[in-house]
Write a structure and sequence with these properties.
Two copies of one chain form a homodimer. Chain A is an alpha+beta fold. Chain A folds into two domains: 3-82, Arc Repressor Mutant, subunit A; 89-134, Dna Ligase, domain 1 (2-Layer Sandwich), CATH 3.30.1490.190. In chain A, 41% of the residues lie in helices and 21% in strands. Chain A has five helices and five strands, in the order ααααββββαβ. The first copy, chain A, has helices at 3-12, 19-31, 37-44, 53-65, 105-117; strands at residues 70-72, 80-82, 89-93, 99-102, 123-136. Chain A has a three-stranded mixed beta sheet with strand order 4-3-5, with no helix packed on it. Chain A binds a DNA duplex through helix 4.
DNA sequence: TTGTAAAGGAGAATCATTCTTATTTAATAA
DNA sequence: TTATTAAATAAGAATGATTCTCCTTTACAA
């Protein structure tokens, strides 16, 4: 995605467009691999050599807050960030730390129908996601 | 579950049966609410007043390693532990920190069928779980 | 009963993340 | 264009969960 689109995306949510925010969001899009805060710091260190790690966390929080990115939790204990915000699922590699987005409209429908039929007593569903664990051939 | 069953469960996996391990596993079963390490520490502090917090983490790791309990990740950044190890899903409350086990054999079948039909190129599925987010009536 | 590998206790260390405070800056209005 | 100001950043201390180290204790096999 071009820088101008990124600037617009940030501005459209009512956030100030700062070089740090642009660099971080660009990093998430171009890394495209559910990076950690540290991965992002590494990726932007040429363009933002003086950025504070605390700033990266604060920017990430703001982007999550405004639904520009999403948080992805893992068992490794580090938070990871996903630039794709549409309803989707994740493939988790149990051998390496790879996470891939898994988009499956048919699966969404299947689950939506299932949960419409089968209400859960005492619980009101807002959304759902499937965590698919396994191995990538490349691993 | 009775203490003797717990001792057997630990012994059957080839682990030494220690009072700390028994107390921790008993805490997980009786709390029955996906406790954190700290929750467990609180629960066992009468019977194990001198247990080190590091020991709790080490015991939990051993129990997970031997498939007696499971780790549950959350966005709150604390690891939680689940004494139910059969294939199941989780209901996450987005208002409080409640997590409930969600057992739905029909859903398991639905997903198994779906993934049998729809192979994911380059990825070999080992297992899957649905994370259902919403609110409990009681919250 | 003893020997020994495994487990536990104490507390320091680590690591991701958050907080505090002073400084800087983006965006708005004059 | 410049001045104003609320919001954002830098720096680094603080926090909090978890891990590690090292020494002591214990479960259990022989």
């Amino acid at each position: 995605m071009e820088i101008e689109k990124i600037r617009e995306e940030i501005a459209n949510k009512g956030l100030k467009v700062t070089p740090q925010r642009v660099a971080i969001l660009e990093a998430i899009y171009s890394l495209n691999n559910h990076p950690t805060a540290e991965n992002i710091a590494d990726h932007i260190k040429e363009s933002q050599p003086n950025i504070a790690i605390g700033t990266i966390y604060k920017v990430l929080d703001a982007l999550v807050e405004h639904n520009i990115i999403k948080k992805v939790t893992t068992e490794a204990g580090k938070m990871r960030y996903d630039g794709f915000t549409e309803h989707h699922h994740h493939l988790y590699c149990i051998e390496c730390d790879l996470i891939e987005d898994y988009i499956d409209e048919e699966l969404n429908e299947l689950l939506k129908n299932h949960f419409n039929k089968k209400r859960i007593k005492g619980f009101h569903i807002k959304n759902f996601a499937v965590q698919v664990n396994g191995t990538f051939d490349k691993c």
